[in-house]
Write a structure and sequence with these properties.
It is built from three helices and five strands. With 135 residues, it is of the alpha/beta class. It has a five-stranded mixed β-sheet. It is elongated.
Length: 135
């Protein structure tokens, strides 16, 4: 006569219990966070004291260069030729603090006009050129 304890389930355990693993990982994460904030290496320094103050440079207004669909070039709203543009770039390039150039080119304008403006600016030593677009 045979008797059995419980059900006749021969499958056994098919799932692994992940709760102890998660507990261990949380403890390790807390230990890592605590040691990372405590073990921040720093070198003690005694910096010298001075009386000099930093003089901020006066902000320069950027030069706005616009190129319309007919390849006309405008300096802050005033239409100019490439020769006048080059002269004005040369004048601004002689300044100790060089202004920025904001370049607005119509999407229907030719690449040549934009390249000519950038070339004239580069020749004058003005390298801070930003392209302006609509969002």
């Amino acid at each position: 006569m045979g008797f059995s304890l419980g059900e006749d389930n021969e499958q056994g355990m098919t799932e692994m219990n992940l709760i102890p693993l998660i507990d261990i990982m949380l403890v390790l994460m807390i230990i890592f966070l605590v040691t990372a904030t405590v073990a921040n290496p720093s070198i003690p320094l005694t910096l010298p004291k001075t009386t000099a103050q930093v003089q901020p440079a006066p902000p320069l207004e950027p030069i706005v260069i616009s190129i319309n669909k007919d390849d006309q070039i405008a300096w802050n709203g005033e239409i100019v030729s490439l020769q006048v543009l080059a002269q004005r770039f040369e004048e601004k390039g002689q300044l100790p603090q060089k202004p920025a150039i904001h370049l607005k080119a119509d999407k229907a304008s030719k690449y040549d006009a934009t390249a000519q403006v950038m070339s004239r600016a580069s020749e004058a030593g003005l390298a801070d050129i930003a392209f302006v677009s609509d969002n």
